[in-house]
């Protein structure tokens, strides 16, 4: 992915939304070199227990998070686990059952990898289209 967003709680002295709640400030977090981010995740296809074989498979996924690094921490306490290119094969290998080596990948990204910047609150709604940074 090219980046991800996190929102810092709104300033009570700042602008309010239509419900009178302070507007949260969104931040775009991306690689400082603008390369893509590889995110650690899990994927599964399954059927609910006890369902007949004719029941369609459910496909589910999740992004794994870790503690925020110093770059992200001013905005949020968590961040996705970001994998370096040399870690991709270990993470994606379905035959890799070395839990210790896989767990060692679940750590915050180096601070120098990322940059963070505020972007327009327009990113808060899927109705809005276009670049808002």
Automatic annotation (TrEMBL):
UniProt entry tagged with the keyword Lyase: yes
Biological source species: freshwater metagenome
The family this protein is said to belong to: Belongs to the SOS response-associated peptidase family.
GO terms for MF: lyase activity; peptidase activity; single-stranded DNA binding
Keyword Lyase annotated: yes
GO biological process terms held by the UniProt record: protein-DNA covalent cross-linking repair; proteolysis
Name of the protein in its database record: Unannotated protein
Matches recorded under InterPro entries: SRAP (IPR003738), SRAP-like (IPR036590)
Assigned keywords, A-Z: Covalent protein-DNA linkage, DNA damage, DNA-binding, Hydrolase, Lyase, Protease
PANTHER family according to UniProt: ABASIC SITE PROCESSING PROTEIN HMCES, DC12-RELATED
Pfam families per UniProt: SRAP
